[in-house]
Amino acid sequence: MFKLFFKKKKLLIFTILSIFLVVVGYVTVTKANINPNRQVGDIVDSFNDVKVYYNGGVSHVEGRNLTADGYNLGLKYQCVEFIKRYYYQRFQHKMPDSYGHAKSFFNSSVASGTLNSQRNLKQFSNGSVKPQVEDILVFDGTLTNRYGHVAIISRVTEDSIEIIQQNPGPFASSRETIILKKVNNGSWTIEKPNVLGFLRRP
Q: Distance between CA 19 and CA 141 in Å, rounded?
């Protein structure tokens, strides 16, 4: 009886310790800069003269980036900060709702091809029209990233798109190529899990 009790107690302690180590490891990897070749704030890429900055761990934040007139560009150097800064610098575009996580940029109650009034941009569902260069691609949240992700489409061909992104992770590239497929009814699908759709200037 005592043997069984101590065995169960040992197992419980081991389980708690394992969970603790996993949590500490996850926090370290997502908040700390584990890439010895880069510093947070390094310029890693640019598109149409709008810079992409290195952020280290995906949950790391350097503070809020505001324009001179107080418009909120987002938390440095998260993915949202890049796409809002891109649209502000490139098009002088200000979103009526300047807050929200990446996945909230796509409003599922807005019909595809109509105006998303929170962002003052036209919204298209994945599997509708063909994406265009400078559209904002929106990804849904996942088990490991509940806030989702956003990126700018930097190139479109007949069978792929390229995106440029900020904060993909300490060792990931700022550019990624994704398969684009035209289906029989004339619609286009971006072949990557969790793509909700994209936003475009009206």
A: 23
- The CATH number given to 33-200 is 3.90.1720.10
Indicate the residue type of 38.
R
**What pLDDT score was predicted for residue 18?**
45
Q: Around 116, how many Cα atoms within 13 Å sit in the side-chain half-sphere?
A: 24
Helices (H), the chain: 2-31, 79-91
Rounded to two decimals, the pTM is 0.87
Q: Cα separations (Å) of 47 from 17, 62, 67, 129, 182? A: 45, 22, 19, 24, 26
Q: Is the pLDDT of residue 22 over 90?
A: no
Does pLDDT of 15 surpass 80? no
> What values do phi and psi take at 104, rounded to 5?
-75, -5
> At 176, is the secondary structure helix, strand, or coil?
strand
Q: Is the peptide bond before 86 cis (omega within 30 degrees of 0)?
A: no
Is residue 97 within 8 A of residue 104, CB to CB? The reply is: no
Q: What is the mean pLDDT of the chain?
A: 90
